[in-house]
């Protein structure tokens, strides 16, 4: 499994780490870093061989598990010298593509650099040595943060197209990408792929994807693979009319009532409350604003006492959390409805990733929180005391800012 990423550059910490030697520039190197061949952005390291020429045809490659593997036989390299080409066909096959006019570009996630598993000088030396071994003019881009440049997001490719190809337009129909993170199940001696991010990266760009086995050995592309359960691209083809037809009719209440929202974090609850329910006069009670369920319950009673209909904008994933508010409704003798968000577990995680990418001030919600919510979820029933349970579909505003980004695969699996 590839190392997990966070939102900003981190210094090495004393947290539990792999039993490997950190890549260190104090170790003797076969050659010094040629800084003239390197560029650095906020989250990208870019290497360009001096003889590398622009081309409309790109052969993009992942690095680890696609071009190289640890020569020690370990899962992770012990130092910056611990590598070898993955097989004897690599140089020959790359030469074939090069002779056909392809530009060879390594495009790889290397979050381990900012997690302290290797330092930048040693990593640069490693890449220079790999390029020397390939004996072909190569360009290479490495994403070192959890941002728009990390696959399956297309930031590295966008940089290549906009700044790294000397203005030559890239022909997507002639270009391809190969990587070992292809979403394949275990087969024979090969373990299950750690993710699907390389296949999704190619899909997001709109180019052909091939596995390393297909690329290096011309094997038929017949292996099974599993795509993520949530497909964001499908939202591009749903019309506003189709989406809105699924939305239940919600009118201004003619009597006091209590509504409980039920749904994962980032499922669209708050947006629905502010855009649909608040204009109808509902008082919104949110734990995000108040901090505890006790304060939410107290605020709910206060609002009802003021003759205000209330919507509780919390996750309310289990019977116990919902019962607190249903009891209040019974005390005040008012009906209580449940608005159940249709947004799936996977879709909500996609939404959370989108928030993190587009809102720098957003406080990220960890995958552990999502897992906890999934484990505690109990489907609402009228037996709990609900007058009605309405299902609320997720409706994407295709005209919203960053809609094109939203409809790409944002998660690695």
From TrEMBL:
Sequence segments annotated as region (Disordered): 1-32
InterPro entries, alphabetized: HAD-like_sf, HAD-SF_hydro_IIIA, HAD_sf, P-loop_NTPase, PNK3P, Polynucleotide_phosphatase
Pfam families (alphabetical): AAA_33, PNK3P
Biased composition (Basic and acidic residues): 1-13
GO molecular function terms noted in the UniProt entry: ATP-dependent polydeoxyribonucleotide 5'-hydroxyl-kinase activity; double-stranded DNA binding; polynucleotide 3'-phosphatase activity
Signal peptide extent: none
One of the protein's GO biological processes: DNA repair
Biased composition (Polar residues): 18-32
Protein name from the UniProt record: Bifunctional polynucleotide phosphatase/kinase
Organism of this sequence: Trichobilharzia regenti (Nasal bird schistosome)
Organism classification: Eukaryota, Metazoa, Spiralia, Lophotrochozoa, Platyhelminthes
């Amino acid at each position: 499994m590839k190392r997990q990423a966070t939102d900003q550059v981190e210094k090495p910490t004393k947290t539990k780490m792999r039993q490997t030697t950190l890549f260190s520039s104090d170790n003797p190197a076969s050659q010094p870093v040629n800084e003239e061949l390197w560029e650095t952005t906020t989250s990208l390291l870019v290497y360009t061989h001096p003889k590398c020429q622009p081309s409309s045809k790109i052969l993009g490659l992942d690095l680890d598990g696609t071009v190289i593997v640890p020569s020690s036989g370990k899962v992770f390299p012990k130092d910056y010298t611990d590598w070898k080409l993955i097989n004897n066909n690599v140089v020959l096959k790359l030469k074939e593509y090069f002779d056909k006019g392809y530009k060879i570009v390594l495009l790889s996630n290397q979050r381990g650099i900012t997690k302290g598993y290797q330092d930048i000088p040693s990593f640069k030396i490693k890449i220079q040595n790999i390029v020397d071994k390939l004996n072909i003019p190569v360009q290479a881009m490495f994403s070192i943060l959890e941002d728009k440049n990390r696959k399956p997001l297309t930031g590295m490719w966008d940089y290549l197209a906009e700044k790294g190809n000397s203005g030559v337009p890239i022909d997507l129909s002639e270009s391809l990408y190969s990587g070992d993170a292809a979403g394949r199940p275990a087969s024979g001696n090969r373990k299950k792929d750690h993710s699907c991010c390389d296949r999704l990266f190619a899909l997001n760009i709109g180019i052909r994807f091939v596995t390393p086995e297909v690329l290096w050995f011309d094997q038929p592309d017949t292996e099974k693979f599993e795509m993520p359960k949530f497909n964001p691209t499908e939202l591009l083809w749903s019309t506003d009319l189709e989406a809105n037809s699924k939305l239940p009719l919600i009118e201004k209440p003619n009597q006091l009532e209590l509504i409980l929202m039920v749904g994962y974090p980032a499922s669209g609850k708050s947006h629905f409350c502010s855009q649909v329910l608040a204009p109808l006069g509902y008082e919104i009670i949110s734990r995000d604003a108040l901090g505890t369920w006790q304060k939410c319950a107290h605020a709910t009673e206060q609002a009802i006492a003021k003759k205000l209909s209330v919507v509780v904008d919390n996750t309310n994933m289990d019977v116990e959390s919902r019962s607190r508010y249903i009891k209040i409704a019974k005390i005040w003798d008012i009906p209580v409805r449940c608005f159940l968000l249709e947004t799936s577990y996977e879709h909500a995680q996609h939404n959370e990733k989108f928030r993190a990418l587009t809102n720098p001030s957003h406080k990220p919600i960890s995958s552990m929180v999502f897992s906890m919510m999934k484990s505690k979820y109990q489907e609402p029933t009228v037996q709990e005391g609900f007058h009605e349970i309405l299902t609320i579909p997720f409706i994407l505003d295709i005209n919203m800012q960053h809609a094109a980004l939203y409809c790409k695969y944002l998660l690695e699996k």
